[in-house]
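Is iron/sulfur cluster placement plausible here? Inputs below.
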Amino acid sequence: MELNDTIAPIERPADEAAGAPPRKVFLKTYGCQMNVYDSQRMADALAADGYQPTEAIEDADLVLLNTCHIREKAAEKVYSELGRIRQLKADRAAEGRETLVGVAGCVAQAEGDEILRRAPVVDLVIGPQTYHRLPQVVRKARAGEKVVETEYAIEDKFDHLPALREKAVRSRGVTAFLTVQEGCDKFCTFCVVPYTRGSEVSRPVAQIVAEAQRLAEAGVREVTLLGQNVNAWHGEGPDGAEWGLGQLLFRLAEIPGIARLRYTTSHPRDMDDALIAAHRDLPSLMPYLHLPVQSGSDAILKAMNRKHTAADYLRLVDRIRAVRPDIAMSGDFIVGFPGETDEDFEATMQIIRDVSYAQAFSFKYSPRPGTPGADLAFHIDEDVKDERLQRLQALLGEQQKAFAASLVGTQMDLLIEKPGRNTGQRVGRSPWLQPVIVDEKAGEIGDIIKVRITKAGTNSLFSEPV
Ligand code: SAH
Ligand code: SF4
Ligand code: F3S
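Reply from A.M.:
I modeled the complex. C-alpha cells:
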C-alpha cells in the first residue's frame, strides 16, 4: 500500500452513530493550483470522517480557508474574510450552532500561532505538510482545544496527501491535477514558497503512476502534473535508472485513457534534454509551456537569484520551439523589483516581444517578510509600479489576442469538459489551454473531437465540429 493511501482510522462519535445530521464543511481556496488539489484532498479526508461539502458558508459547521501567502494582498484577504466569519460564527452561536474555523495553506505555515493572536475566531491552523492529520486536528478543535499544526518531518512530506476516493474523482470531471513534487530550493529573493512549502521533495514513481491510473479509471482524460518546481522532479525508474520529469511523462503517457498531459510550474534551469525530447516525441504532451522568466534584465535576474540570464532563457525557448514549433509559451512577470530602472523594465518589455506569449501572469513586486528582497535598498514607488504593470499587461494582452486570432480557421482537437454557460453549448479546452465553445450535439463530456475555430472571443474560442 502506498504511504498516502492511509488515513489514520477514527472512531465515530456517538452523535453520528445516533443518526444526527451530517456535519458540513465550507472550503475556500486561494492561490495556486496546488492549493486547489490540496483542497480536494482535504475535502476527501473530511468526507471519510463524516463532513459533507457545502457551498453555503452559513450552513457550515467547519469553515476552512486554504490560503496563499505569495503577495501581501493575498495574505491580507484572509484576515478580512476572517473578520466576516467572526460575525457568522456569532450569528450561528446565537442559534445554538457551533462553527469551527480553520486556516490551512501557506499563510498557516508562514504565520502559525500568530494567526490565533490576530484572529481569535480561528480554532485551528494547519500547514500544507500536515494535512494527513486534518481529521484528528478537527476532532481536537471540536473538543475545545486551539490547535496549531505546522511541524513535520521532511521524510513524511508526502504522507500529507490523504487517500483519493474514486467517487470523489468521478464527480469532478475529465481533467485533474496530480501533485508530483512539492517545495522549492531555489530561493528567489522575492518569494515565500521555499518557506511555506519547505524544501524540494519528489513523490516516488510508483505513487504517481498509481494515482494517474486511478484517475484514468475514474474517467479523467487530461492530467496536469503539479509542483512548485515541477521540472525539478526526479526519481528512480522501475529499472533503477535516475528519472527526470521527461522520463516520468513517457511512463504516464502509456496509461490507457490518459489522452493529454501537462505540467506546471517549471523553472528555466530545470528544463533538461529529456524533457525537451518529451515535447518532441510525445503527442499526448500538450504544446503549452508555462516557463516564468520574471524579468528581462540581467541585473534584476541576478538580484532575484534566478541564476540565469535573459539570453539563456531565449536560447532555451528557441531549443524548445525547434522541436515543437507550435508550442505556446506562458510566463510570469514581476515589475518594480527593488532597484528596477526604466532600462531594466524596457528589457522586460523586450523579452516579451522576443518570446511572444500566448498567456501570462504579471504582478507588482510585493515585499514579503523574511525574504531577502524585502531588505534590499531602492524600493520602487507604487505609482511607478502601477504604470509599468499597465504597459506590460497591455503588451501581453495584445499578444494573447493575436495568438487567439491566429487560430481562427484552423482545425484542432478539443477535449469536451463540461456544459457551457448557455443552453445547447459545451465547453472544452484547446491543446493551448483556451476554453473552446462547441454545440452540445458535437460530442459527450470526455470526448476528444476535431473542431474548426470560427471566432475568437475575449476569453474563449468558438468552434464547429468537423
Ligand atoms: N514556483 C513557481 C511560481 C511561484 S509563485 C515559479 O517558480 O515560477 C507564482 C508567481 O508569483 C511567480 O512566478 C512570481 O511571478 C509571482 N511572485 C512570487 N512572489 C512574488 C512577490 N513577492 N511579489 C510579486 N509577485 C510575486
Ligand atoms: Fe519561488 Fe523561485 Fe521557487 Fe518559484 S523557483 S517557487 S519563484 S523561489
Ligand atoms: Fe500561494 Fe502557497 Fe501556492 S504561497 S501560490 S498557495 S504555494
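Short version: Residues 70-71, 190-191, 193, 228-229, 265, 267, 292, 294, 332, 334, 363, 365-366, 368 surround S-adenosyl-L-homocysteine (ligand 1) (CB under 6 Å).
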